[in-house]
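Translate structure to sequence.
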């Protein structure tokens, strides 16, 4: 290492995230002192504390802007980052950029306040030497997350105390491609070693393709995706004052068929069923004439409790739907209190004349009276008699049934019988006074979903968001089957426990994210069947269900399946009643994957024994009694949290456990960590791998291999187990971990 590098090294990377992603890390490697990497303070409930005295070397990332253009497999990236020296002396810093994977980056240029600095590519072996030297020097394992790949290194530049520097990084990256999916990776997690949360992050990624873009999906972050044309997509992310937890990934595919489907499979243990993720997207229609016609009925509560702001927002939602229907669509409006009233006695064909009449009807809606839910739904479903085109009922209520049929079970059964055309019922529960369990039962029996709107949320915007998704059905009643080459009928279904369950609809600009388990491996054929404009169509796609996964590249597939399965288990117990078999599975999944629910949050208690399955099932059984609360704030919060699990689009963020609470908030849990494909629990000031047997949890257990940190044996673990272990070596506290058949303590 050069003398200039022996001063200060700074890893300033770039960003992007669903908790944020910045990239910046200062490391002091001066020979006369040790400086551990900074760590931000993260508390579930922030509290004020005295302003700290500036440290000799410290910094904060102020702003990050990332612009990416992705054409075929080549990404051109520009990252602009502002950071401030919050220490008390001048920093002499260099820029190190760990590669996302070997040989992926070239043509890197680096600018500081407009001045270009030299950048040199270091191969993986030389980069590893730098990582190990810094780790040994500072007794800090954080950099080991990037061990095993190359890096770019720049020349040194100064940053005076209190000064801000704006750096820009430009490079091109060749992305990996597997199973037809282009895989784009950002090494973002260095930003978790900044002094404070990143103030502002903006990210924009434009995908351009010669072929039609089908699926665009991030397994790590919740991003916004717009698709202006068939061959272009724009992914964006913006967040303020967040702390990063993982690197960012985006995968996408292209194709010429009307429906694009890609399958990723992951099988960590050959003796158990594997996990698969299926992405399905329809072609984006160019004109409204190509869109299939649909029937839409809006059923809105006008009872006395809806008076004031709520009824005005509901009317705004009605107007939005009316202004976004297409000529030829069929529609009607049903409003109800104790009396049920319709805009027209039967479905109306949408055109400019009927639109204006309907808008006039909306203006005359006022609130007052009781709540006749059963009568309103019966009136709406009774108008739907033709199943040649898809039908949607948007049902809005803010209270309990107080007129007509009041029995929850009878309302659900009656609605199910009246729905003769497989209409999709989407319910909106407004405020805490709704019977949330009733709404969940209604949509489960009628092929839809429920949404819950807090008192301070805007009804109009929530309904508009839903209608923007379902307003353009492309393929309806979609069923997916998977056949493995050489499979026999007696083998049964290849895929089991698939979520979402049953048939679904595909909408323009949207994609399905489906997860499931598979028992048989090999080359497979995926068949997608459904209706397009009333005609039955099917499409076939090749896939491969792997027999064994050599690494954890697709470990997120297992995590995502587990999250969805947890949501289904809670839903089953909520609507059908709890039993010990389901409770045991809930506790087992929560423990293995670190998925905390309101009923298993006790796993985060550092005094609890996460290996005590019998005792933990007993605790969960008692907590599940809360599902008896169908209304009120707690009932509302439980159904909203359950829906978040059922419809999760991403796996748990690496290094982070989140807990939806009874008061409808989400907190970060510091005693549970998801890292790679493992879950760790903090007990007795150590991070213990969930796979470790209870008897081996003690660091001094006879058959536990104890290794001194930063010794030759410590770094040799990387050579023995490969790159997948680096994220575990980087844990910054004592660890007990199972690797292969051996339990290690370091």
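Result:
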């Amino acid at each position: 290492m050069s003398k200039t590098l022996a001063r200060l090294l700074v890893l300033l990377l770039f960003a992007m995230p669903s908790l944020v992603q910045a990239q910046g890390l200062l490391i002091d490697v001066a020979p006369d002192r040790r400086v551990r990497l900074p760590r931000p303070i993260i508390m579930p409930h922030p509290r004020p504390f005295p302003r700290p005295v500036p440290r000799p070397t410290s910094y904060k990332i102020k702003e990050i802007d990332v612009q990416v253009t992705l054409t075929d497999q080549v990404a051109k990236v520009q990252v602009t980052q502002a950071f401030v020296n919050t220490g008390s002396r001048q920093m002499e810093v260099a820029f190190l950029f760990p590669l996302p994977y070997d040989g992926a980056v070239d043509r890197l240029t680096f600018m500081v306040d407009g001045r270009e600095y030299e950048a040199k590519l270091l191969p993986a072996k030389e980069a590893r030497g730098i990582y190990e030297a810094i780790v040994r020097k500072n007794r800090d394992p954080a950099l080991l997350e990037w061990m095993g790949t190359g890096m770019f290194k720049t020349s040194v530049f100064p940053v005076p105390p209190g000064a801000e520097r704006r750096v820009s990084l430009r490079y091109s990256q060749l992305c990996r491609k597997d199973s037809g999916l282009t895989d784009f990776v950002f090494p973002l997690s260095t930003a978790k070693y900044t002094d404070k949360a990143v103030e502002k992050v903006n990210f924009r990624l434009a995908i351009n393709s010669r072929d039609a873009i089908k699926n665009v999906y991030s397994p790590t972050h919740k991003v916004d995706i717009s698709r202006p044309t068939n061959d272009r997509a724009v992914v964006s992310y913006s967040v303020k004052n967040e702390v990063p937890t993982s690197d960012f990934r985006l995968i996408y595919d292209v194709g010429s068929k009307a429906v694009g489907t890609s399958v990723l499979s992951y099988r960590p243990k050959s003796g158990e069923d594997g996990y698969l993720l299926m992405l399905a997207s329809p072609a984006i229609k160019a004109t409204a004439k190509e869109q299939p016609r649909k029937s839409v009925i809006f059923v809105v509560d006008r009872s006395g409790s809806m008076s004031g702001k709520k009824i005005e927002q509901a009317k705004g939602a009605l107007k939005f739907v009316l202004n976004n229907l297409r000529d030829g669509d069929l529609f009607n409006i049903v409003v109800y209190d104790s009396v049920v009233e319709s805009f027209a006695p039967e479905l109306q064909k949408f055109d400019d004349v009927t639109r204006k009449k309907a808008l006039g009807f909306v203006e005359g809606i006022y609130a007052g009276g009781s709540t006749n839910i059963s009568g309103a739904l019966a009136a709406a479903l009774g108008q739907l008699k033709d199943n040649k085109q898809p039908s949607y009922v948007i049902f809005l209520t803010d209270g309990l049934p107080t007129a007509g049929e009041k029995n929850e079970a009878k309302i659900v059964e009656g609605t199910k019988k009246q729905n003769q055309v497989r209409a999709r019922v989407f319910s909106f529960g407004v405020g805490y006074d709704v019977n949330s369990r009733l709404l969940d039962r209604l949509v489960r029996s009628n092929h839809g979903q429920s949404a819950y709107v807090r008192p301070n949320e805007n009804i109009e915007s929530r309904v508009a968001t839903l209608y923007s998704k379902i307003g353009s059905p492309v393929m309806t009643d979609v069923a997916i089957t998977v056949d493995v080459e050489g499979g026999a009928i007696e083998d049964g279904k290849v895929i089991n426990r698939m979520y979402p369950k049953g048939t679904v609809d595909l909408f323009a600009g949207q994609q399905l994210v489906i997860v499931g388990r598979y028992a048989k491996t090999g080359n497979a054929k995926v068949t997608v069947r459904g209706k397009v404009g009333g005609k039955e169509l099917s499409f076939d796609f090749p896939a491969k269900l792997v027999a064994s996964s050599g690494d954890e590249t697709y470990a997120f597939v297992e995590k995502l399946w587990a999250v969805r399965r947890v949501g289904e288990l809670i839903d089953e117990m909520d609507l059908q009643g709890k039993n010990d078999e389901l409770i045991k599975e809930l506790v087992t999944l929560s423990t293995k994957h670190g998925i905390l629910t309101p009923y298993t949050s006790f796993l985060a208690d550092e005094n609890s024994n996460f290996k005590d399955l019998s005792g933990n099932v007993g605790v969960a059984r008692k907590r599940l009694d809360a599902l008896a609360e169908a209304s009120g704030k707690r009932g509302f919060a439980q159904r909203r949290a359950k829906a978040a699990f059922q419809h999760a689009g991403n796996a748990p963020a690496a290094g982070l456990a989140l807990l939806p609470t009874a008061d409808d908030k989400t907190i970060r849990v510091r005693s549970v960590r998801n890292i790679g494909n493992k879950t760790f629990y903090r007990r007795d000031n150590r991070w213990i791998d969930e796979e470790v047997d209870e008897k081996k949890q003690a660091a001094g257990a006879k058959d536990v291999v104890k290794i001194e940190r930063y010794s030759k044996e410590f770094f040799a673990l990387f050579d023995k187990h490969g790159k997948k272990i680096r994220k575990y070596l980087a844990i910054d506290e004592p660890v007990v971990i199972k690797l292969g058949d051996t339990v290690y303590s370091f």
